[in-house]
Amino acid sequence: MQSLQARLSTGLFVSLVTVFSALWLIININIQFLAEEYIASRLKHDADTLLNAISFDANDKLILNNNKIDQVYHQPFSGHYYLISTRTQYKQSRSLWDQQLKQINIATGEQLRTHQPGPEKQSLLVISSGYQISDSLFTISIAEDLNPIKENINTFLYWFALISLGMLVVLIALQAIILRYSLQPIIQIHTELKSLEQGQLDKLSTDSPRELRPLVNEVNHLLSVMEQRLRRSRNALSDLAHAIKKPLTVIQQVAINSNIPDGTKDTLVQQSSEILQLTDRILKRARLAGHSHSGALFSFAEDLPALIKTLDMIYTSKTLQLTINMPDNITCPIDREDMLELLGNLLDNAYKWANQHIIFSIKIINSALHICIEDDGPGVETDKIKELSQRGVRLDEKTAGHGFGLAIVADIVNSYGGHMDFNKSTRLGGFMTELVVPIQQA
Questions:
Q1: 360 pLDDT band (50/70/90 cuts)?
Q2: Predicted pLDDT of residue 324
């Protein structure tokens, strides 16, 4: 979908172009109309002057007193012309030279406005009026060339178009600045959402425009609800594990010390041991996750030391050397909770089975995050490793050794479009897990 700024810019641009075009068209039509009206009023005035210079003799012959006529009508092709016509005779201005206006007969008291071609490609506005002196009827047609006024109008329209275009460019630039400034709160919210995703904020700022405030409040409310639900779910799971652990221990002790058949006793002890192991796993997971708000990305610089410290506290009975190979300022594209679950499972297995040494390597290759965890433990048989590789999408959490919790890890890796491989460590001789997770570009 087109961005909001692009849609507003396009709409305002089209509106401005439409308004300026309509304004130019209105001015063009009106200025030509006003110019013709001005010329027509002047022609009517000249027609009245000609009327005063007209007389008829006893034989009804048209007589014209040239001394009363403006000199412009005597200059050849001056652009000012007249034609006085009766039914039997006519007189025209000397300015027409050897040309002639179209003869028009108009009834007395009537008036007609026409356009005619004139000498030397002139465009004439002609006003024809009907008159009567005594019994003599005649028509006065007086004309003026419109080309000079049209040239002036075209020059005006040209400069008006240039000035309008300049104003349009300035308005578009101002519009872009105003839009950018007006949309700044949305850009700020986008930046805060990025910070929220990276765990740098726990809620959006409420200092926002009135139109955006309901959206911000709703997002903050949803974040709060998600945080509370996550905390309640985690606490309930931990409380349930604690609540189950004590009765299971009692059941296990009673089964061991009771006089029930050995087969039934072994079954009860085995099942209770597996449930105890599962509750230990849940409690350990809660300790590894710690406390954070939802939506934060994992930080190797901040979260990894805390995770390792927790594992060291869990396995205080073992003396292990953990070697971390990690570049500075490395980014992680995985949610903090998911990454804690992922690394918590893998490092927990490594801590559990390693004898003395664990190597934890992180690097970025071809826009993908590569994680490799190796230990010097007993490892897994070659045929078992192949089986793990084939079933890596879903493994049985009840399987002893390195298979414990790998199903969760596989689900997390697959959800981010990555893959996970198992192998034997060539450096330490134990088990090795390799993860590849693509980094999505913003």
A1: very high
A2: 92
147, 132 Cβ separation under 8 angstroms: no
In degrees rounded to 5, what are phi and psi of residue 433? -120, 130
Torsion of CA 240, 281, 311, 253, to 10 degrees: 80
Say how far apart CA 431 and CA 346 lie, in whole Å: 11
Q: Are 169 and 147 in contact (CB under 8 A)?
A: no
Q: With H, G, I as helix, E, B as strand and everything else as coil, classify residue 349.
A: helix
DSSP β-ladder status, 431-438 and 90-92: unpaired
In the predicted structure, residue 250 carries a pLDDT above the cut 80: no
Cβ neighbours of residue 9 under 8 Å, at least 6 residues apart? 175, 176, 179
310 Cβ contact partners less than 8 Å away, ≥ 6 residues apart: 287, 288, 290
Question: From CA 303, how far away is CA 342, in angstroms rounded?
Answer: 13
Distance CA 194, CA 269 (A): 51
Confidence of residue 405 (pLDDT cuts 50, 70, 90): low
Average pLDDT over residues 378-392: 65
Q: Cα separations (Å) of 120 from 76, 145, 268, 324?
A: 11, 10, 122, 97
Go through the domains of the chain in sequence order and give each one's CATH number.
4-151 (3.30.450), 297-442 (3.30.565.10)
Alpha-carbon span 270 to 265, nearest angstrom: 8
Residue 367 has a CB neighbour count (10 Å cut-off) of 10
Q: Give mean pLDDT, residues 18-28.
A: 90
Residues 6+ apart with CB under 8 A from 341: 285, 288, 289, 408, 409, 412
Q: Which two three-digit tokens encode residue 122?
A: 């002139």
Angle between helices 336-353 and 303-314 (to 10 degrees): 40
pLDDT in tens, 112-131: 999 999 888 899 999 999 99
SS3 content of the chain, % helix, strand, coil (to 5): 55, 20, 30
pLDDT at 228: 75
Residue whose C-alpha is closest to residue 189's, from 201, 175, 173, 199: 201
Cβ count near 81 (within 10 Å): 28
Start-to-end CA distance of the chain, whole Å, equals: 17
The tokens describing 283, both together, are: 């409690």
CA dihedral 407, 410, 411, 413 (to 10 degrees): 160
What pLDDT digit, counting tens, does each position of 272-294 carry?
Answer: 777 777 676 666 555 545 444 45
**Number of residues in the chain:** 442
